[in-house]
Specification:
The complex is a heterodimer of chains A (579) and B (684). Chain A is 63% helix and 4% strand. Chain A is mainly alpha-helical and 579 residues long. The longest helix of chain A is centred in the last third of the chain and has 34 residues. The two termini of chain A are 23 Å apart. Chain B has 684 residues and is α+β, with helices and mostly antiparallel strands. In chain B, strands 1, 2, 3, 4, 5, 6 and 7 form a seven-stranded antiparallel β-sheet that branches. Chain B has a seven-stranded mixed β-sheet with strand order 8-20-19-18-9-16-17, with helices on both faces. A six-stranded antiparallel β-sheet of chain B has the order 10-15-14-13-12-11, sandwiched between helices. Classes of the chains: A mainly alpha (579), B alpha+beta (684). At the A-B interface, helix 14, helix 15, helix 17 and helix 19 of A face helix 7, helix 16, helix 21 and helix 23 of B.
Amino acid sequence: MLFVFLQIGLYLGVLLLLVKPLGLYMARIYGGEHTFMTPVMEPIERLVYRASGIKQSDEMDWKIYAVAVLLFNMAGLLLLFIIQRIQGFLPLNPQALPAVAPDLAFNTAISFATNTNWQSYNGETTMSYLTQMMGMTVQNFLSAATGMAVLIALIRGFTRHTINTIGNFWVDMTRSVLYVLLPLSLVLSIVLVSQGVVQTFDGAQTVSLLQKTQDINGQTISEQAVAVGPAASQIAIKQLGTNGGGFFNVNSAHPLENPTPFSNFLEMLAILLIPAALCYTFGRMVGDTRQGWAILAAMTLIFVAVLIVSVWAEQRGNPVLASLYIDQSPGNLQPGGNMEGKELRLGIADSALWATATTAASNGSVNAMLDSFTPLGGLTAMWLMQLGEVVYGGVGSGLYGMLAFVIIAVFVAGLMIGRTPEYLGKKIEAFEMKMASIMVLVPVLVVLLGTAIAVIIPEGKQAVFYNPGPHGFSEILYAFSSAGNNNGSAFAGLATNTLFYNIMLGFVMLIGRYWVIIPALAIAGSLARKKIIPVSSGTLPTHTMLFITWLITVIIIVGALSFFPALSLGPLVEHLMAK
Amino acid sequence: MSIRRGLYRKAILDALVKLNPLWMARNPVMFVVEVSSVIASALWVQALLGYGEAKAGFIGAIAFWLWLTVLFANFSEALAEGRGKAQAAALRRARQETRAKKLSQARYDARYEVIPSNDLRQGDIFLVETGDTIPVDGEVIEGIASVDESAVTGESAPVIRESGGDRSAVTGGTRVLSDWLIVRVTANPGDGFLDHMISLVEGAKRQKTPNEIALNILLAAFTIIFLVVCTALLPYSIYSVETNGQGIPITVTVLVALLVCLIPTTIGGLLPAIGIAGVDRLIRRNIIALSGRAVEASGDVDVLLLDKTGTITLGNRQAVEFIPVGNVTDRELAEIAQLASLADETPEGRSIVLLAKEKYGLRGGTEDGQLSNMNYVPFSAQTRMSGVDMEGLSIRKGAADAITTYIEWLGKSVPPELRTVVDGIAQRGGTPLVVSRNGEALGVVYLKDVVKGGILERFMQMRKMGIKTVMITGDNPLTAAAIAAEAGVDDFLAQATPEAKLKLIREFQAGGRLVAMTGDGTNDAPALAQADVAVAMHTGTQPAREAANMIDLDSNPTKLIEIVEIGKQLLMTRGSLTTFSIANDVSKYFAIIPAAFAGTYPTLQALNFMQLATPESAIMSAVIFNAIIIILLIPVALRGVPYQPVGAAKLLRNNLLTYGLGGLIVPFIGIKLIDMILTTVKLV
């Protein structure tokens, strides 16, 4: 058990140590300040602007900014759809994979453009290398950069006053890719290659089996085709950009996607790195780093609490196996606990930590099968997504989602001290409340209603093959929680590559992404127009432990009240029944 | 007592009238409750006909309590309205005590009748004589009189008012010192304001204030979430029954009950009452608000502009010391100064006489008691001196430069020592009054502004509330600084002109601050119009009152502080009850969810840790608690959550503990109690 805590402690320690340097770096990048990367990237940046006719000084108001975001994302979505549909005619396709089915291509295109990376497909048997590299990986960068740009625009709403504009989307976008995502991905992918992650254009490699086996027709099988490909370059950004769409079907449980404990540590670190560091960027940009630390503290406290429950639930073991007198206690020969669906080389702590991190951030990559987690372990992963992906959350999207909760928390707290609520000197009025409410409301609604439709119509119910009842309900609820909050992780066990789920989840992802982005930009525009109120002793301090506690309470109460009935019919009742 | 009973009876009737769906639609939360009540009632009728989804008695009881929930909310609003109106009516009666002599003709010797000043209408003509208070604003059409306008202007010297020219306007609340005036009323008195105010407490005409709108959005968002939670629960339940093979899907009755328990009915129901009660609390303090927005804004005020005279100081300078120069003794100076002031009716003059009496026992004259042949020289604008001439004595007192000029004009000189004394007093914020006898400067009377008792503590309180206080005065910066320091204000504006005031307010507002001020003079009107919260004194001039958004009937400028507190209370009550309302939901889930799925998943009983007796009693208890808590919280809504100036963080902590934690725990106890009662009397 001590070892479990050491691993978690090391992970959080390294993560928090990196927050300030990376956060500071990003603040300087977005502020247009000189950094050590400027000499390298500035010529490229200028070239990009010149080639695409962008004037850096052109500022946008929130509506134009939103239109730019939507058009740019839609173009990416279309491109990815087309690449999938014509991959059979394109190069870099050693396995000669045919065109992706239209409904699956539709789902996948939305999934990657919205930073969800829900995968109804099987990577190594569906997508050509070109589709993975030119389609998926490009969207991994662009969808992440979109989230960061929207966040920076929202931050400008707080820092600017009595002005209509909130920045230039093209510039914010380009800088996110060039200065933040590309360098980090480059470094990470090279380190991952050193650990054994593959990066090649060769087709599947044939290897001889150590132990021959027979197929269902009684034929002897002595060879296995091992899928390879340009994986490392995609995995780095998959983790850093909170995308999560694996190169291989089993994602980071695959030994060629995540070979060693070190690669596992780095990939886990990469999940939370940018979302956590952006909190510092926020604090720095609004001129009060305490505000950033306070938000980071709120996120971390929720994260740690949920992580403890998850580790505890998994380490405790599976009650069904316990009733069969199977020894699940940790000892020298086994890690103990519920090892079903977990990689032996990774064990309980790393699996639970990954599962918690990947659902806390809207990453969605996995290194263990969540469907086999204990009901409570599955509940923690599901619930972190249902909180709205604000505990770290996606790059950019996590913090702008969190700021919606901050606005609501500040509003109620502000009333409680008898003042028109204000945050960072900006008055929170009816318009901000309307938009913040939409940001919190929409993901909740699409998850609840999507699940309701799926459990009632035959196309939805039929996808639950093996575990009808509470567990099947959990699988469906998980799928919609993942899509509606743009996480992309799957509980698995649910056959979602069907027309119904591809279309349904596709729309859920679209609504869950853009109906949060648009109101976030609207808040930015409205705040930028306001005056900044000076701080007095009557101002509610928003960096204290009291406020952090209150913010956590608001997030948990909203999440708990919205999903308590659904959770009690899924994982909760499953847990009680297994007892 | 009977008035109170009448109030309640009226409120109950109004609560029924307000069931009109058109009216209810104004309040989305309670509208949902009403629709739910209708659905439950329809289900009850269906059950009576034998097709019910559950026992008719159970559905009927749920429907009954849902209707009560709506009625309780309506009752709270009606009660607040009733109290506000009763208060306004009482105020109207009280205001009629000021009398006016209404003339039948514009002649001094015409007949007049004494009527309440509120009955005066524009164009009426009235008479004021020595000692009368001018009842309302008007224009002099005949006569000339000296008028004490210090109540309005703070200027203690009487002014002359006469017909024609710029000196023809008289102000309500000022007093005639001598002679008489015939005045024509230029505007209707306060009645208009009262009518206006009544519209703020009367539901139908009430406009929602900005914070109320924002809060309503949040409450609507919660309502939508819970609406979807409950709607989605039906398919979830059907799926669960299907796959688990036991129990029946959740009934619509239970869904409707769950919905009403979850949506924030406590705050939604009490919200209108809270707003009305805020206005009502102002009326109790004799303040008439002219807009609900202003009441709300007053809680946000972070700069208070306060007139020095009347607010911070007692209004009149008082003599506190006699400082002789040369070889004059202080007693001699006191005697001469006293002589010069005997006939001086200004407060300063009286205070000199008083000080001489207190300190030296001088009483009404010289020590030998001679008081004959005194020839009083009144203050004039040219000489800026007053005094007395008698038997070879020519005594003058006045401002240092005026007396100096006078002495030099007589061909004599002023001792250099005098300058030092005068400057010393000025530096301490006092007013030096130089006394001369036969062209010889005897010394200086130290006149001082007396700061009101307890004002220092109030300003300290304001600082804790995060409010900056700024003193506005016509004095020179030196005097202003001294008084500012003594009173403990944060800042001051000296030699304030109306333009300077307006500029100051605009500067504060440009810096994002909300400014409150009090004013009474016509020249305050532009600044009042600019300020976010502007309180006009009832004694103030008509333009001032029109520019303001609140009127203080007591004309007590320190009331601004209470207005701020009432504004804060208003917001705090809303915030606290919102927190309470949402926190309540946790316990209701634990009551209803295990009960609703008792048939499908009996294991969920593990969540029923309140040990509620049966599924029916659990659901009933939650619904009943939800209705009763509205009634129980009406006193909090009407009284408001008390405000303590302890700083934002501590205030938040206190309220979170009371209403957040309380809201979490109280319903567990309440629901359990109701369940025990229901089980004992075997209602379920």
